[in-house]
Amino acid sequence: MADRSIVVVGAGIIGASLAYHLAGHGRPVILIDAGLPGSGTTRASFAWIGRPAVSDLPSAPLRYLALDEYRRLETELPDLSIRWSGSLSWDGFDETPGPCTSDVGALEPNLLDPPAVAIHRPEDAAFDPVAVTHLLVAAARGRGARLLTGMPATALDHQAGTVSGVRTTAGVIPAETVVLAAGTGTVALCSGIGITLPVDPSPAILVRLRAALGLVRTIIAMPSLEVRQLDDGTVLAPTAYSGERDHAALLRTARRVRDRFAASFAGAGDTTTCRQPGTVRRRDALGDHPGRRWPPCRHRDPHRVTSPRARRLPARAVPMILPAMTWPYRCRTAQGHQLRPADTAC
């Protein structure tokens, strides 16, 4: 078995951040992915970061840390580009109380019918998740991590109840520690060793529109429309999945979102869809293995990006199996074999 080696399965933004932080602790890291970095769920993330004023959600402790953690990353990675635009929400979109403003028209001058009052979180931000993933992967490689793409993980290699590596289409990669950051793919990998994870698909659709630059200034969230704009003019608008199964159905949904956007912003009449929308979002489990010491919980805001704190927790104490965006845990397989945790002195 490789000495203190770690294999991270999944090179999305979570796996990339794990590889970066683990390599920063001097651990030999191999990051593998079936495709290219950021080509899975990360590619379709709305990438909204922020924290609620108050919340009893299990994800709240991580969201409280989000802004500080991203500020830290900005100091470590000078090329990291985060748009600190703030957010506006109204009509019950945000169930948690927050600071209010009656100056929505000044913050969003192109909004045709601004509400009298909206929740304003000026510290909220967003970024390009694929660009940030590539940046983290490059930084991880600069710290000595290896990247293997086009290499699907097919199973976990285990002996005598201990996971000892990852089976891939190119063979077995031995490791002292295996970290799973493969989204819903983690479920299948864990089921092969008798572990059931409460990670369920929760699809939505991310519509991409092309509009005039500067049309949307902040992150806008109301029940009928949720949008933010990128520096190149692209408008991102997540919307609920209603069973769309083909290109035509996706385009009809995209046009409905485009029409709502055009009706909400002055100068948005010539907005066009610039790419076929795709299903995004999934629910990630936060907590320990079900039926063990601590109950799992679900992240109810999958369109938001949880703090990078969640991604560097394993750099402090790496478990033998870590589902994406979970707290470290120890558990037993259905056969009762202990999954041996890794050395916690990174």
Automatic annotation (TrEMBL):
<feature type="domain" description="FAD dependent oxidoreductase">
    <location>
        <begin position="6"/>
        <end position="273"/>
    </location>
</feature>
<dbReference type="GO" id="GO:0005737">
    <property type="term" value="C:cytoplasm"/>
</dbReference>
<feature type="compositionally biased region" description="Basic and acidic residues">
    <location>
        <begin position="281"/>
        <end position="291"/>
    </location>
</feature>
<dbReference type="InterPro" id="IPR036188">
    <property type="entry name" value="FAD/NAD-bd_sf"/>
</dbReference>
<keyword id="KW-0560">Oxidoreductase</keyword>
<dbReference type="Pfam" id="PF01266">
    <property type="entry name" value="DAO"/>
</dbReference>
<dbReference type="InterPro" id="IPR006076">
    <property type="entry name" value="FAD-dep_OxRdtase"/>
</dbReference>
<dbReference type="GO" id="GO:0016491">
    <property type="term" value="F:oxidoreductase activity"/>
</dbReference>
<feature type="region of interest" description="Disordered">
    <location>
        <begin position="281"/>
        <end position="309"/>
    </location>
</feature>
<protein>
    <submittedName>
        <fullName>FAD-binding oxidoreductase</fullName>
    </submittedName>
</protein>
